[in-house]
Amino acid sequence: MNFCGIITNFESLICIWNFYECGTFELTINKNKTNANKLQKDNMIIVNKKDDKILLIDKVVTTTNKNSKTLKVTGTCIKGITKRRIIATNGYDRVAETEAENVQKHYIKNHITESYYDNIRTPERDIKWIEIAPTKNRGIKTVWQARLTILHDELKHISEDTGLGWYGYLDRNKKKIIFDSLRGTDRTINQIENSNTYKSLENFTQTQLQQYTHEELRGTVKQPYIVFSEKKKNLLEGKRTDDNNNYKNVGYIAGKGENEDRLITVLGKAEGFDRREVLIDLNNIEDPDELKQEGQKKLDTYKKIQTIEGKVYEIPNMEYEKDFFLGDLVTLESDGLYEDKRIVQVKEILERNNKTIELGFGDKIPSLGEEIKRMITKPIS
């Protein structure tokens, strides 16, 4: 936590911030630039002096081209440090029903700040300069259990399941990284009493929509609304994905036992053409209630993927990190259709004096690696 230096003349910096999981970054800079030698593995970068934007360096590649050398520095946001721990336990690390925030912080405490292996204290696993913010009991109530999975992946699944994000920030006085939960703000048109308010916008012309301001909703709106729209010209080069390829809505959950004596329960009620079945193998579970609970969590991962991605042009009253933030719920218009989506990812591209913002709304599209991992992951007996 010691200050090393300031770097201002890099070629480019691309940061991806994610609501549910750790993001990544890529920094390109000439090796001879001031303080470039401070870009070393396990060092941290604060972006634009913002203490909630901390990057952790994992890899440095030096490329020689004629008389110059270029560094390509990559890694994750500070949340990536949770990839260094597993839910280390012989049995299951279980959390009784409580708010999602308490579940998130239980696992961070047990495996980073005050570590245990079952009931045995394991201080060698602690990271002294990480602290957990006091809980505010946010999020829906849930129960959870985990065993021998990567801590980051478990936190990601808790967030996706409950809709409560998480992040890390620097406390300069304590010289510590503080982990806390993150709940986005509802900035949709539908936060108004009339839940179909945005339907009144469907026939607006481009000029009418651009002139539609916060003033027209004064006294009826809890938060200034945010509309990203092709008509409004603040959503550019958009891409919409509506994917049912891996969607399943009925799960045959197989628990402990052999052959015809095996414990099996069925979750989901879809019928006929709409029924999409999947076998979920949980052969280490013998309690019927626990089988249903864990089976539902697995079935929920086979969800529909509905996303909108696009570059954002910042206009007055709609500026990133001033009027809207990662995790917020906003209203989108694309091809004349209006819908409310969460900002789940922000990609910042900084090049010289130019800054570009690209947003991802809705569900994250799984990468090939994530799909393969999901297909081959089986419970440990």
What does this protein look like?
- With 381 residues, the protein is mostly beta strands.
- It folds into 4 domains: 12-81, no CATH class; 85-181; 189-243 and 305-362, Elongation Factor Tu (Ef-tu), domain 3; 250-299, no CATH class.
- It has 5 helices and 21 strands.
- Residues 365-381 have low confidence and may be disordered.
Give the gist of this structure.
The chain is mostly beta strands and 381 residues long. It has helices spanning 100-113, 151-162, 206-211, 288-299, 368-376; strands at residues 12-18, 24-30, 44-46, 54-65, 68-77, 93-99, 116-117, 120-121, 130-132, 141-146, 165-171, 176-182, 227-229, 235-243, 250-254, 264-267, 277-281, 305-312, 329-334, 337-351, 354-362.
| CATH fold group of the largest domain | Elongation Factor Tu (Ef-tu), domain 3
Average pLDDT figure: 82
The radius of gyration over CA amounts to: 23 Å
Q: Classify the secondary structure makeup into a structural class.
A: mainly beta
Tell me, briefly, the overall form: globular
Distance between the termini: 41 Å
Range of strand content: 35-45%
Please provide the ordered H/E string of secondary-structure elements.
EEEEEEHEEEEHEEHEEEEEHEEEEH
In total, the number of strands is 21
What is the CATH architecture annotation of the largest domain?
A: Beta Barrel
Descriptive tags:
single chain, 381 residues, mainly beta, Elongation Factor Tu (Ef-tu), domain 3, 21 strands, globular, disordered C terminus
What is the secondary structure topology, with strand pairs?
Elements lengths: L11 E7 L5 E7 L13 E3 L7 E12 L2 E10 L15 E7 H14 L2 E2 L2 E2 L8 E3 L8 E6 L4 H12 L2 E7 L4 E7 L23 H6 L15 E3 L5 E9 L6 E5 L9 E4 L9 E5 L6 H12 L5 E8 L16 E6 L2 E15 L2 E9 L5 H9 L5
Parallel strand pairs: 9-12, 13-19, 15-17
Antiparallel strand pairs: 1-2, 1-20, 2-5, 3-4, 4-5, 6-10, 7-8, 11-12, 14-18, 15-16, 18-21, 19-20, 20-21
